[in-house]
Amino acid sequence: MSTDWTLVTxxxxxxxxxxxxxxxxxxxxxxxxxxxxxxxxGSADVARALGADVVALERNVGFGAANNVGLxxxxxxxxxxxxxxxxxxxxxxxxxxxxxxxxxxxxxxxxRGVDGSVQPNGRGxxxxxxxxxxxxxxxxxxxRSAYVVPPTTEPVFVAWVMGAAVAGPTAALRRLGxxxxxxxxxxxxxDLGLRAWRHGMPVVVDPHAAWTHEWKRATTGLSWxxxxxxxxxxxxxxxxYPELLLGPRSARRRNQDAAxxxxxxxxxxxx
Length: 271
Fold this sequence. Notes:
Layout: E1 5-11, H1 15-22, E2 31-36, H2 43-49, E3 53-56, H3 63-73, E4 78-82, E5 86-87, H4 93-103, E6 106-112, E7 118-119, E8 122-123, H5 128-134, H6 141-147, E9 156-157, E10 160-161, E11 165-169, H7 170-176, H8 188-198, E12 203-213, H9 224-240, H10 248-254, H11 256-261
Parallel strand pairs: 1-2, 1-4, 2-3, 6-12
Antiparallel strand pairs: 4-11, 5-12, 6-7, 8-10, 9-12
Helix pairs in contact: 1-2, 5-6
């Protein structure tokens, strides 16, 4: 079953993460493509030594564009985009494929921190107030709770999932157009989820598959470069989805399926 899978990982100075999270993983026949964004720390060499097929780019083209490079060269039925700081569980590939096939969905595993803590990788509609509340920059518990879909014991529909680990049929991902390359980094996972829903492709988090994710959020630090990318991508995202600026009524009208099903268990919507 795993030979039907390709994993695409984008690296930019991630040699340490590759050694930590990929050295002891038996991918059981799945192909691993690493697209390296001109790293200066030997990430490409480390990936090759670990068994990856490496596409070494001459410059940093951004997260989404590099993911699309991997999508273009993949030949398997199933594909997962996986960050370098994620430890995959190949035994869960069949579960993810079954969930994706049943609901015609993009699917993500549940994510757990290296300490075993549950990470809320399923999200609701990304209103700017909800995002700010989630970061502690805006008052309002209701806004914060609307942004994060609580983890469940059964597969659940979400508006979008964090781009650290998201999977689906390779052909369907290509029909979606892959990742929007307007976003150098940040917000491209928001866009992918909402765009999938608009194309009739639900987004599901399946807790029956669980992968480990270190999750170093760059914008919790003081680096102006990271914040610059966050602000630029945010402006591009809300220009593309202006209804999210106008409040729930407008947002739900434009994103009807995502709004209707987010937070509901998949058993409520059998195909």
